[in-house]
Amino acid sequence: MTTCAVVGCVQIFDGEFSPYSASHSIADVAAANVLKAAILCAFGSFHILKWPVLSTVAAAVALICTKMALFRGWTDGHGAAAAVLLVTTACTLCQLAAVRSSSFVNDYGEADPDVELMPTVAVTTVPKSETAISSNAQSKSPLSFQYLPEEDDDLAEPLLTGDYDEVEAGGHNGGNGKGGRAPAADGKVRGQNGGNGKGVRTPAADTKASTMRSLLHYAQPDALLLSLGLCFLLVSATARLALPNFTSRCLAAVVSSEGDGKDHLFNNLQFRNNLAYLVGTAAVYAFFSMLRIWCTAKAEVRLMARVQRVLFAAIMRQDISYFDKYGTGQLTSRLTSDATMLGAIITTNCNWVIQTSLSLFGSMGYLFFLEPRLAGVYVAIATVFFVITRQFGSFVRKLQKKIQDVKGDANQVADQSIALARLVRAFAAEEWEQHHYDKSNLDMVREQLRSKMAYSLYVPVVAIVQNALTFAVLCLGGFYVTRGQMSGADLTAFLFYSQTVQDNMNTLSEQIISLFQGLGAGEKIFEIIQHQPTLPITGGLVPPGEPKGELKLNNVGFAYPGSPQLRVIENMNLTIRPGERVAAVGPSGGGKSSLVGLVLRYYDPVQGTVLFDGHDIRVLDPRWLRRQIGVVTQDPFLFGVSVRDNIAYGRPDMSLEEVHRAARLASAHDFILQLPLGYETVLGERGVTLSGGQRQRVAIARALARQPKLLILDEATSALDSSSEHEVQTALQTLHAKTRTSMLIVAHRLSTIQDADRILVIQRGHIVEQGTHTELLARKGVYSVLVSRQLQTELLEGDQP
Ligand SMILES: Nc1ncnc2c1ncn2[C@@H]1O[C@H](COP(=O)(O)OP(=O)(O)OP(=O)(O)O)[C@@H](O)[C@H]1O
């Protein structure tokens, strides 16, 4: 179509209304088809731009038909070409309809397009004594593994039911060896696939080059779109390169017409032709730019979403110790700002780099073509000036970076004060916070003024450099023109192209900087994606039959991965029989919560074994294990969804009756019914619209809804008032009487665990005493001291008015 338009324009301007030839018709049809293919590919999911696309196709057809009519295409025996045109247009519309119906993914669902990129880790080791049992549940899972018994102390190698590929793993393994996969000396580890029978190749990311490779790997699904974008880019960049030439030629024609006595500028053939080429080239540039932008923008959006999905999956599968080490802020910024920067690399940055490089080197080449000596001098001076302005620019950028840091500090102060407004008010610390904020604010002002001052110097320096270059070109070029060694038109073109060279030099360097920043962000992202957790989240043994809920610790020792030298649990032996209610008490920092973490397999012990129903929990499918254990912690985290969804968390298939039952057991049913929308009431962020006691009861209901075989209450009733606590205690006793669920209750308030079957006193990582309340009191050891201290405290509190 564009070709048609350009040729048509030229013919009209030339006044050559020559008969429309058969070759013209065929060329038109071919052009229309090429255009159609481009549009189809570019606007694959054209549901977004339905009307622009359809209008473009209609305009193409109308233009070609008009042109054929104008040039007597219909009457000169070219009906066949016209018929071909109509048929192909009809086909185009059908294809567009087909593309529309097939290209849009509403949800990732079963036909997940990114399944091969998803990190899949489900590795565990099996002690020699264990036999792998492949349950129904496991064989249905997309991650299907069989295990060989562990040989020596080496890691067991998972055997996949499908093929497996070698996975390059540049990131560190990060594991302590147990249950993880250590990278081999050559930096390669064995990987497993996602159950689709094909291997997953995860590229390494320890350098910028490998980050780029990884990124290209993630961009592969959009390879066609990107290739098209590249083709459109080459066309639009070439057109852009040609524009100043036609502009300068037009200008030269205008100058040469000065005072020539002709009525109309359009009578000047040189002006007419160059103007027609200028209009045609500008149309080509605009049209192909539109196609290029659409293709690359679509690829960018998809690439970013893909990276974010894979990254989120990678974060979610990390060990708990990983979350201990890296804060929420760091990980979420990887998901947001870093992913955005990374997504822009292939599309925005690379696009600009290619486009400006083409324009830069093309313009430079043309300068040399116009006048090599002038071009040589110009490029030499421009390069020196460019280096100077770059240096100055990077100094200004450093100052701006500092501003960002100071701004970040100020924002952090503001964020904290606003988020903790209640605390600030309670401590009457408004002035202190204001003083804090003012300090950061003044730092910000100081840095900003410094930067603005540098910038105010930078702008004139750049202006002087640019004008000095123009000055040099005009002087030297003018000298050549006056000596007849160069035409005036060529000097005008030279000036235009030299401006393009300068602009492109600046843009190219800016884009290269952004590209490297994006690669830096990418390195951090791929580091997380390739970081192999040591503990699996799924896969492993699912024991047959109904679980009993027996827990056993055999000579367990544990230290947190962050401080491996500090044993927080030492040589601990413990058995909780099915149906038994065991309480753990003891001084703060004794290791009670660490024990809970071990039972839930947030961490693996560094010594000994934790057994559930007689199986080492390291061989059990962690998902199955955690389904058998209900947990309620001191800080009840609730999601900002409905009460019902909070209780049925992780089990969307749970019936309303089951939800009600769990809420009744947790003494939460009555207050939930009094909420504005009952069970459908949406809670505020982290459940802030409920009182502490209400939140705790919803959390207990959530744990009970899964009908666990072992219920862990880690300071679960500490936030309740005495009447709510009494209610929940009664509810838990009824639950225990009904279901004989085993319980491990961590408590500080000793009055709440007096009727436990057994009480463990944990101090400095050891069980120092155990027995019933009466037995322990009679022993007059640590427990009796704790009880008497607490009694004294309660008495003192009771005395206070
Ligand atoms: N994520 C962690 N990384 C490193 N050390 C930790 C971590 N969590 C706890 N600890 C340390 O482990 C020890 C035991 O802590 P734990 O939370 O198990 O004690 P606790 O008996 O539950 O205490 P409290 O009754 O106060 O809740 C403490 O010395 C604590 O500093």
UniProtKB/TrEMBL annotation:
Keyword ATP-binding applies: yes
Start-end of Gly residues biased regions: 171-180
All copies of domain ABC transmembrane type-1, residue ranges: 228-517
A GO term, aspect molecular function: ATP binding
InterPro entries: AAA+_ATPase, ABC1_TM_dom, ABC1_TM_sf, ABC_transporter-like_ATP-bd, ABC_transporter-like_CS, P-loop_NTPase, Type_1_exporter
Short name of any one Pfam family annotated for the protein: ABC_tran
Ranges of residues in domain ABC transporter: 551-789
Bilayer topology: Multi-pass membrane protein
Transmembrane residue ranges: 80-99, 223-243, 275-295, 350-369, 375-393, 455-481
Alphabetical keyword list: ATP-binding, Hydrolase, Membrane, Nucleotide-binding, Transmembrane, Transmembrane helix
Protein name per Swiss-Prot or TrEMBL: P-loop containing nucleoside triphosphate hydrolase protein
SMART domains: AAA
Region: Disordered, residue numbers: 168-204
